Amino acid sequence: MNVQPLLDALHVQEDAARALADDIRAQITELQGRLREAETHLEHLAITRKTVTALADRLPAHPVSPGLPEHPDYPRILAVFNEATAPLRARDVCEALDHELLPKNIEGTRAKLKRLVKLDVLTEVGAGSFTRKQ
Fold first, then answer.
1. Which residues of 20-53 are buried (b: 16+ CB within 10 A; e: fewer)?
2. Cα dihedral 21/24/30/32 (nearest 10)
3. Rounded distance, CA 130 to CA 81, Å?
4. How many other CB atoms are found less than 10 A from the CB of residue 116?
């Protein structure tokens, strides 16, 4: 009885199984590297959170802009105007704040800018054009 064809078929299957095992080992090695990177990133984020939390405890309870309305956009709006080199429109401020450029957002921002004018923080230098009060 000739068993050679059977041994040849077995050899082909062993080669295929060995190639599959090698491929899976390579994938595992790559995944282990990616896992190490992800864990390192998580550690860095945890350290950053701890640092920011410690620093936040040292900040005054309220921002150094007394008289601003209690809304998170107002300090951000002022930061936009601090960086501006020219008068800004409500649409420009919306873009800087990463608000979607929808009419309701632009109008809401315009209302906030008008309120800052009334609070003597901003000046309306032209119709719909605002700048930081000098």
1. eeeeeeeeeeeeeeeeeeeeeeeeeeeeeeeeee
2. -90
3. 9
4. 22
- CA nearest to 77, candidates 103, 96, 100: 96
Q: What is the pTM of this model?
A: 0.51
Instruction: Give residue 62's pLDDT.
Output: 46
User: Residue 131 contacts by C-beta under 8 Å, 6 or more apart in sequence?
Assistant: 81, 84, 86, 87, 88, 122, 123, 125
Q: What is the pLDDT of residue 14?
A: 97
- The string of DSSP codes covering 52-97 is HHHHHTTS-SS-S-TT--S-THHHHHHHHHHH-SS-B-HHHHHHHT
Location of structure tokens 């640092």: 51
pLDDT for residue 66:
59
Task: For residue 20, give the H/E element and its range.
Answer: helix 4-56
Report how far residue 23's alpha carbon sits from residue 10's, in angstroms, rounded to the nearest whole number: 20
Angle at which helices 73-83 and 103-118 pack, to 10 degrees? Answer: 80
As averages over each run of 10 residues, the pLDDT of the chain (134 residues) reads: 91 97 97 97 93 74 63 89 92 92 94 92 91 85
